[in-house]
Amino acid sequence: MANEIVVSGKSYKGISYTEYMDRTKIKLLSTNPNNLTEEEMKLFYYTKLNLQRSIRIEKNYIVSDKLKSLLSSISQEQSWLVLTEDWCGDSAQNLPYINRIAECNAKVKLCILLRDSNPELMDQYLTNGSRSIPKLIAFDKKGSEIFKWGPRPKAAQELFINLKKQGMPKPEIYENLHMWYTQNHGKEIEKEFTELLQIILAKYL
User: Fold this and answer.
1) 97 in a domain, yes or no?
2) Would 159 be classed as within a structural domain?
């Protein structure tokens, strides 16, 4: 089912997390790798690997009681818009956490839009001039921005920047980054969302 969200006066129709995952599975099943170009094959491989990563997180992640308590305090409707793509490794490592967190309160509606299909919207939320994803922007029921998050936890972003400065090849950077995600088990994203909600609730309540 499509989720409609208004940003800067323009209406966008997104999809739920479940629909996003279902579309990814169907896409992988219906694609013949033999018909793909070399670049398309890379994206196909990344998407397949990312689906496995996301499913693993879904099976193992339980929202902490502290974060659940904060989420239960949200009394007004919010829309959490996430810009992403299924080939993005950072999205695979973070979006399942975001979805599970959003599920803790029915007043929080998670709406997913594909970055490459919405370049004008993406360009409103660049990270250091880059279309980095996933990018989460939360809005209240009036359409005002509440907070922004992404494209990755701060500790992961610092690791990425430091390895890049060292001149490490991109494949090795991402290998180290995914190792960090595996070892962290979502602790940093939990910590950041807890801190975000504490600030937001203090402001809005």
Assistant:
1) yes
2) no
Distance CA 142, CA 31 (A): 41
Q: What is the pLDDT of residues 33-89, one digit of tens each?
A: 999 999 999 999 999 999 999 999 999 999 999 999 999 999 999 999 999 999 999
79 occurs within a structural domain: yes
Domain count, the chain: 1
119 near 69, Cβ under 8 Å? Answer: no
